[in-house]
């Protein structure tokens, strides 16, 4: 508390006292698509309220059928739907929390035939073109927003958040490029902001004063034809005048070509845009985007750029973020690493959200703690994400765990990920693992290559093998030529790499190696450098806050000539994460990385890499060929123990190497620890 006086300070607003300044930001979970959705949502939000979040904002509910994202997406427009919501608000209030329902109309982002917008302009990320709303329909939509707010109040919510950012309907009205209307809702700035202001006034007419109304403003649109900073500030003033209690901030539209929340975005990069809103109003302002630690949050508040901080993904990663902050255990927070792998990437591919570092997220009712049948002595071999996760979770259930790691440090593959520019957040994951292993009293032996006989002799009740993977050798002639390196040589052993490079294999690691060779760590740590790289205008004087198109800004550091290859005849990077793959591809394209698919590797010799594409043979003169051709399981120890009849389990890469990632490793380890 003493360390975070501003973050932990209560806030009284609209007759409610919020216990601290931590807001769980709205996030779609898709939990509503599963069985017993409201029981799941109640457990999900209830856990965050027990973890002492000051205010929870739900994922968005549409005010009418045209406003849903896709068929079956959340909608609140009838009283008959309220019983389900009372389960959610009841769970949060029982834990002493506060919760507001977000109302969002998708507008032209809706993926169904009812899709509407201020104008009939199709969004580049949606194949469906919207129908232009008639003036009468605009007024009806305003009433629909107010109706949903009134229902939220009846359903026990403490307030609503009006979603006015990220390029949804309200934002489509406020930005000139999506609003070409000629009625009272289009044309001048005054007419364009009329829609959100009428929504706000209509809601205020329908709900009591002591009902929190949050307006989420687009602090910077990051799209050509968006609002200028002066327009954003004026909208904020008008929102305050028309009855909002709090202004939350959003950054960018879903169709922006600038990353806004990925790990490659520096922490608090958008403070300049949030401050522009804060300076315009007297009501509390919430900062959002790339805030994931109590220190970062406290620093933002003490800089005066905001009064509260919104964290959606960080509270997915650790529901107890606020409580741990209050009791002085910030080092035990399971920090969101901004990877998007288990949350946004799953949502964008029609799956439910969970979290890479916390597989319990969204599955609270599946992971109800079960007491073990007795304390066991368990050996874990391998200190990568699978081994460490298992050790922590088993230890939390009361087992006595000993972890053996052959290397001199914990982390396994994480130690390679964390050196890649834009992936420094992996350091937080390691800090969490180390702190928990230490706090739980797990015995850790580093530099210890343990053999089957020793483990059997020690008489452990169970042995868990998490020995990971070894790089796959593609097996063409010349893989032992001095020019050839593996990704482990480059990322973990500091091998010297020449100016002209060929990368064999274009999975996540091939792209990581390219980024390592070309990227600049500074860009993901220093906001000014990041903004310049992506053509963002920090003075906010331009429309949408952009100085030039992100696609044309040359990278500051393209130090090498890099050629990437894969055998599959498809575009490289097609299988990278949906929400982050485009960022990597855009950066490498701008660094002139050559990408070739459908390659057949012939050999490596003093002349370089010999390969064939479409039957035509080429020789690429390169200084180095770096193998990123996937992995194979390291299973020797497991096989030896299994044949001896020991109680042995195998997890992570040692179990299945193909397409292994930390998400699958941690999930499998956590599930095993729940049952062992
Ligand atoms: P991967 O994704 O399986 O990619 C392996 C690459 O090697 C593919 O491009 C494959 O393409 C090629 N390859 C496979 N067998 C080969 C052979 N015998 N000879 C030549 N080329 C071969 O593996 P990875 O890149 O090592 O990544 C491992 C895991 O970590 C993956 O699950 C990945 O998603 C995850 N990861 C994720 C990220 C991220 O940013 N989300 C970053 C790093 C790693 P062809 O078969 O077409 O040649
Ligand atoms: Fe954060 Fe990654 Fe978890 Fe999403 S999956 S909440 S980005 S750690």
UniProtKB/TrEMBL annotation:
Q: Which cofactor does it need?
A: [4Fe-4S] cluster; FMN
Q: What class of enzyme is it?
A: oxidoreductase
**Gene3D superfamilies reported for this sequence:** Aldolase class I, FAD/NAD(P)-binding domain, NAD(P)-binding Rossmann-like Domain
Top-level lineage group: Bacteria
Gene Ontology molecular function: 2,4-dienoyl-CoA reductase (NADPH) activity
Q: What is its EC number?
A: 1.3.1.34
Domain FAD/NAD(P)-binding residue range list: 377-642
**Which InterPro entries does this entry report, sorted A to Z?**
Aldolase_TIM, FAD/NAD-bd_sf, FAD/NAD-binding_dom, NADH:flavin_oxidoreductase, OxRdtase_FMN_N
**Keywords on record:** Flavoprotein, FMN, Iron, Iron-sulfur, Metal-binding, Oxidoreductase
Domain spans labelled NADH:flavin oxidoreductase/NADH oxidase N-terminal = 7-328
- Does the record bear Ribosomal protein in its keywords? no
Report the family membership.
In the N-terminal section; belongs to the NADH:flavin oxidoreductase/NADH oxidase family.
The molecule here is called: 2,4-dienoyl-CoA reductase
Which organism does this record belong to?
Answer: Cupriavidus numazuensis
Gene that encodes it: fadH_2
């Amino acid at each position: 508390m003493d360390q975070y006086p501003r973050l932990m300070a209560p806030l009284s607003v609209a007759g409610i006292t919020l216990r601290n300044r931590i807001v769980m930001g709205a996030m779609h979970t898709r939990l509503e698509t599963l069985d017993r959705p409201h029981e799941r949502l109640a457990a999900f939000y209830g856990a965050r309220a027990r973890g002492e979040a000051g205010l929870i904002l739900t994922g968005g509910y549409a005010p009418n059928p045209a406003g849903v994202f896709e068929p079956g997406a959340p909608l609140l427009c009838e009283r008959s739907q309220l019983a389900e919501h009372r389960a959610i608000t009841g769970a949060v209030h029982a834990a002493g929390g506060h919760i507001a329902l977000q109302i969002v109309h998708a507008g032209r982002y809706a993926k169904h035939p009812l899709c509407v917008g201020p104008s009939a302009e199709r969004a580049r990320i949606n194949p469906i073109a919207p129908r232009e709303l008639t003036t009468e329909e605009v007024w009806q939509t305003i009433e629909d927003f107010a109706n949903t707010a009134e229902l939220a109040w009846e359903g026990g919510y403490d307030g609503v958040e009006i979603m006015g950012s990220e390029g949804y309907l309200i934002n489509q009205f406020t930005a000139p490029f999506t609003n070409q209307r000629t009625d009272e809702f289009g044309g001048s700035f005054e007419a364009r902001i009329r829609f959100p202001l009428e929504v706000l006034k209509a809601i205020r007419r329908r709900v009591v004063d002591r009902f929190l109304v949050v307006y989420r403003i687009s602090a910077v649109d990051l799209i050509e034809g968006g609002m200028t900073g002066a327009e954003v500030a004026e909208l904020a003033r008008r929102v305050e005048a028309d009855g909002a209690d709090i202004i939350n901030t959003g950054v960018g539209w879903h169709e922006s070509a600038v990353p806004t929340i990925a790990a490659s975005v520096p922490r608090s990069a958008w403070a300049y845009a949030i401050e522009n809103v804060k300076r315009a109003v007297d009501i509390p302002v919430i900062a959002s985007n790339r805030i994931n630690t109590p220190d970062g949050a406290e620093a933002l508040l003490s800089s005066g750029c905001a009064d509260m901080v919104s964290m959606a993904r960080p509270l997915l990663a650790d529901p107890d973020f606020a409580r741990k902050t209050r009791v002085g255990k910030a080092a035990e927070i399971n920090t969101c690493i901004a990877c998007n792998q288990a949350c946004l990437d799953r949502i964008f591919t029609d799956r439910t959200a969970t979290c890479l570092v916390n597989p319990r997220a969204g599955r609270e009712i599946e992971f109800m703690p079960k007491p073990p049948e007795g304390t066991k002595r368990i050996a874990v071999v391998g200190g990568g994400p699978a081994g460490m996760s298992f050790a922590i979770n088993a230890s939390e259930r009361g087992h006595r765990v000993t972890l053996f790691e052959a290397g001199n440090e914990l982390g396994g593959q994480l130690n390679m990920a964390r050196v890649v520019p834009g992936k420094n957040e992996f350091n937080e994951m390691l800090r969490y693992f180390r702190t928990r292993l230490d706090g739980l009293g797990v015995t850790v032996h580093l530099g210890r290559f343990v053999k089957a006989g020793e483990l059997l002799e020690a008489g452990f009740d169970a042995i868990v093998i998490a020995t990971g993977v070894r790089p796959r050798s593609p097996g063409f002639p010349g893989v032992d030529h001095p020019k050839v390196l593996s990704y482990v040589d480059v990322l973990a052993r500091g091998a010297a790499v020449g100016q002209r490079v060929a990368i064999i294999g274009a999975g996540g690691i091939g792209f990581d190696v390219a980024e390592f060779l070309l990227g600049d760590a500074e860009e993901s740590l220093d906001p000014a450098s990041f903004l310049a790289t992506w053509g963002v205008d920090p003075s906010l004087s331009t429309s949408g806050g952009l100085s030039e198109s992100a696609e044309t800004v040359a990278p500051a550091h393209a130090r090498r000539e890099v050629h990437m290859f894969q055998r599959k005849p498809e575009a490289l990077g097609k299988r990278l994460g949906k929400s982050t793959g485009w960022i990597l591809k855009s950066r490498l394209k701008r660094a002139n990385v050559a990408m070739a698919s459908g390659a057949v590797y012939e050999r490596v010799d003093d002349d370089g890499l010999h390969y064939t594409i479409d039957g035509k043979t080429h020789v690429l003169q390169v200084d180095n060929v770096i193998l990123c051709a996937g992995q194979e399981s390291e299973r020797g120890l497991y096989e030896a123990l299994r044949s001896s009849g020991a109680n042995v389990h195998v997890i992570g890469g040692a179990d299945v190497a193909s397409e292994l990632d930390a998400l699958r490793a941690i999930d499998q380890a956590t599930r095993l620890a729940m049952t062992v």
